[in-house]
Amino acid sequence: MTGDAPTDGTIVVGIDGSPASRQALRWACYQAEITGGSVLALSVREESAFLPGSEFALRQRGSWRSDEAVRAALHRTVSLVSTSAPVRERVVSGQPADELLAAAHDADLLVLGTDAHRGLSAVPLGGVAVECVRRAVCPLVLVPAAPAR
């Protein structure tokens, strides 16, 4: 292909329960609809590094939420996005950047959300996004969170 958008490829999108990841999922689903692709919504369960304030960071009975709880939260997030594109859901354990990059190794696109409150003069990316930018072997799209209304 010479600069054309993929027509049947997989788009991997990282979902961590944040507003930015929900916006990234919306963008990925729209892209899949217009290109005829499919979406893999991937949540990485890393017990020691959940983002404070995200749905996945909540503790339950003194321990981190189970895989089933993370799966349910991922499913709720995916169900909020209206799309005609096929969306698969997957929860894995490990280091977020490593798992996202492994899932995107044969994908046509990797999509991540970024914090919209950071300006261009500041470092606009978190550690996972920086690592993915450095090591991705497929095109990567960074989608800012929708502005607060």
List the helices and strands and how they pair.
Layout: E1 10-14, H1 19-35, E2 38-45, E3 59-60, E4 63-64, H2 67-79, E5 87-93, H3 96-103, E6 109-114, H4 127-135, E7 140-144
Parallel strand pairs: 1-2, 1-6, 2-5, 6-7
Antiparallel strand pairs: 3-4
Helix pairs in contact: 3-4
How are strands sequenced across the largest beta sheet? 5-2-1-6-7
Task: Give the uncertain stretches in residue-range form.
Answer: 1-7, 58-63, 119-123
Query: Which secondary-structure class do the elements indicate?
Result: alpha/beta
Report the strand count: 7
From N to C, what is the helix and strand string? EHEEEHEHEHE
Give the end-to-end Cα distance, rounded to a whole number of Å. Answer: 40 Å
- Summarize the main sheet: 5 strands, parallel
Radius of gyration using CA atoms only: 15 Å
Strand content: 15-25%
| Mean pLDDT figure | 81
Describe the structure.
By secondary structure, the protein is an alpha/beta fold. The chain has 4 helices and 7 strands, in the order βαβββαβαβαβ. The chain has helices at 19-35, 67-79, 96-103, 127-135, and strands at residues 10-14, 38-45, 59-60, 63-64, 87-93, 109-114, 140-144. A 5-stranded parallel β-sheet has the order 5-2-1-6-7, with helices on both faces. The chain has a two-stranded antiparallel sheet with strand order 3-4. The model is unreliable at 1-7, 58-63 and 119-123 (pLDDT under 50).
